[in-house]
Amino acid sequence: MKRIAFTLAALVVCSVTSAALPPRYQNQRDLDVLVSFVHSHPEVLESLRSIDFDRMQVRYGSDCVAQFGRGEVPPMPGPAPALRFESSTCPINAE
């Protein structure tokens, strides 16, 4: 009986802890979103200054900043919500 309980507990723990994406995959997803944004806005691409991965910002033009963020983080372990564009300090033309 103890062996069955231990096995079930191990399966539950393993399934919960393996649900989150390893950092390299999460970083790849986030970087893809930031780079895709740059590629889809010619005015950003033409004047790109930096991609700040720590702050999740794209800096372009003389002093423009496009800010990215995540939605509500679920309480259960798992992949983080997708990174998405939140705002820009300068107008962005939709392409």
Question: How would you concisely characterize the structure shown here?
Answer:
The protein is α+β, with helices and mostly antiparallel strands and 95 residues long. 41% of the residues lie in helices and 21% in strands.
Give the SSE layout.
Layout: H1 2-17, H2 23-40, H3 42-46, E1 48-52, E2 57-60, E3 64-69, E4 84-88
Order of helices and strands: HHHEEEE
How many helix segments? 3
Number of strands: 4
What is the terminal-to-terminal distance? 62 Å
What would the principal axes of the Cα set say about the shape?
elongated
**Overall domain count:** 1
Average of per-residue pLDDT values: 83
Taking the sheet with the most strands, its summary is:
4 strands, antiparallel
Main β-sheet, spatial strand arrangement = 1-2-3-4
User: What fraction of residues sit in β-strands?
Assistant: 15-25%
How helix-rich are the residues, as a percent range? 40-55%
Low-confidence parts: none
Overall radius of gyration? 19 Å
- Which class do the helix and strand fractions yield? alpha+beta
Give the oligomeric state. Answer: single chain
List the defining traits of the structure above.
95 residues, alpha+beta, 41% helix, single chain, 4 strands, 21% strand, elongated, four-stranded antiparallel β-sheet
Can you describe what's shown?
With 95 residues, this protein is α+β, with helices and mostly antiparallel strands. It has one domain (21-72, 79-95). Helix content is 41%, strand content 21%. It is built from three helices and four strands, in the order αααββββ. The chain has helices spanning 2-17, 23-40, 42-46; strands spanning 48-52, 57-60, 64-69, 84-88. It has a four-stranded antiparallel beta sheet.
